[in-house]
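Can anyone check this?
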Amino acid sequence: MSSRESRPPVSADAESQERTQPVALQPWFQEAKLGIFVHWGIYSVEGVSESWSFFLGDIPYDRYMAQTSGFTASRYDPESWAELFASAGARYAVLTARHHDGVALFDTAASDLSVVKQTPAGRDLVGPYVDAMRAQGLRAGLYFSLSDWSHPDYPTVLPQVLAHQQYANNRFAYPAPGDQNPEAWQRYLAFNRAQLNEVCTHYGPLDLLWFDGEWERDTEQWQAAAVRAELDRLQPTAVLNGRLRGHGDYSTPEQGLPMDAPDGPWELCLTLNDSWGWQPQDDNHKSVRQLVRVFAQVIGKGGNLLLGVGPREDGTVSPEQAERLRGLGEWIRRHEEAIYPTGRGLPEGHFYGASTLSPDRRTLYLFAFDRPVDTIELRGVRGTPQRVSVVGSHRELTFRATPSLDEVPGLLYIDVPEDCLDPQTTVFRLDYDEPIGIYRGAGRE
């Protein structure tokens, strides 16, 4: 079972509908395109699913928590992380400051459950990460789980609507129907706010706060509006993801690429293999070509890709993951002009691949994933390009357009020689003398 396979599905559309419109989303976020999502914690000792392994009964809770004795962070080098992430082309990173197991990677006065107090690591791991990311020029974000399956006051109230019946009898999450304790829940909220306050005051100004675990309670139970107001006071420039029950800034579909892009800003979080944290038996790593392809599809739909990395318990990243990150970065550097500062490309159907557009809409970039037999075809785009070239080599290509009929644009065929193809994904640049128009009609009947 993959690390977060059992998380209740998050609908990007639903998330967009309940997300309040941000006053002013920091512009860096939509310009960043690629981030790295680091899942690191005691679960990397045995290589089990983070938090979910005891929640679902795969292993007993006591055995899960016994991993604290083996978590050393003995080779933790956040500067090497930052160098690796930058080499991948990332512009921000997010680290799990506290997952659903409640084990904090920072020194907290609100609880004894931290790597500082309970593991051989014996020190704050968040501060060095934040400093290293900033030194490398990356934006620093932290993941914070609203749920804490280790806290005795957490499973004390039921939501008004229990959306995920499969967890109704799980005592890490919920009380028995007759055993609710609203007073204990208020204590839990105070504890949660205390740790969140520590994160905000010890490491600020943070660039991003990434919430999770929201599905087990209602918006009112989380006091989400009050949490957002407090965060706006403590971290006024931080971007918040969309899992704060209607009080975040952007949508966060997970593992699957949306067929239709969510409304507003969004980010796809995706694992490098099938697991978020370190699981040595999981060797189902995506190839560099697969990563390039999904990255292009995400930015072509106007989103960011947040790519998961799971370090070992000692803090090192496996060669398999590092190799893929560097391979993705090499491709990004060769094609940087098609990524920055471009935006959402053509709707589905105009081209068999992804696309991006320059801010003035006079330059169209086409991402060809597959090897064409002879030409590639563009449909439903008004105007004929003045020039077509291959990004990276600047090699000019021949092309021809068929006549248009009334308001319906003709077809554009681009000749693609075999020796101009990139082994991962080839990108073509089309330069127009006017902003392009897009035709979506049915044509003449």
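Reply from J.R.: I decoded it. Residues 1-7, 9-23 have pLDDT under 50 and may be disordered.
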